[in-house]
Design goal:
The chain is mostly helical. 42% of the residues lie in helices and 5% in strands. Strands 1-2 form a two-stranded antiparallel sheet. The longest helix is centred in the N-terminal third of the chain and has 31 residues. The chain is elongated.
């Protein structure tokens, strides 16, 4: 501890913080000015690159087509789907694939039954691993 009336000799001298403040006050604005001048020369020297996607004037066909009557269109679509679900027709004539009505498909299912397993009896159910007998820790 120091004696009363004397100052600490272990402190930094007062000129050090004053020097740091003065250095900052002078060189930070000079550095900012130097960067601004450098960027001004770079920005002026670099030409503007051509646009990657040149803008084309929008055409009338670019807009999506709007429905004049959505409810009528939906009713027509539902009618087409209903007609297909309740009729018989070819899906692929060469492959011999047809579509049949839902009522006819249900009648055939009742008549023939559901398809069985692909081959042989089903595999036995998996057994759980046996636990060792004895006292638990």
């Amino acid at each position: 501890m120091s004696e009363p009336g004397t100052h600490e000799t272990r402190d930094i001298p007062a000129r050090v913080p004053v020097f740091v403040i003065a250095f900052t006050a002078v060189f930070v604005p000079l550095g900012a000015l130097a960067m601004w001048l450098l960027m001004e020369t770079v920005w002026r020297a670099a030409p503007e690159p051509p646009p990657v996607f040149p803008e084309a004037p929008p055409s009338a066909s670019a807009a999506p087509p709007l429905q004049a009557s959505p409810s009528a269109d939906m009713a027509a679509f539902a009618g087409e789907q209903d007609q297909r679900l309740n009729s018989i027709g070819w899906v692929d004539r060469e492959a011999g694939v047809v579509h049949i009505s839902i009522e006819h498909a249900m009648d055939l299912t009742v008549e023939r039954g559901l398809p069985g397993p692909a081959s042989g009896p089903p595999p036995p159910p998996a057994r759980a691993p046996e636990r060792p007998q004895g006292p638990s820790p």
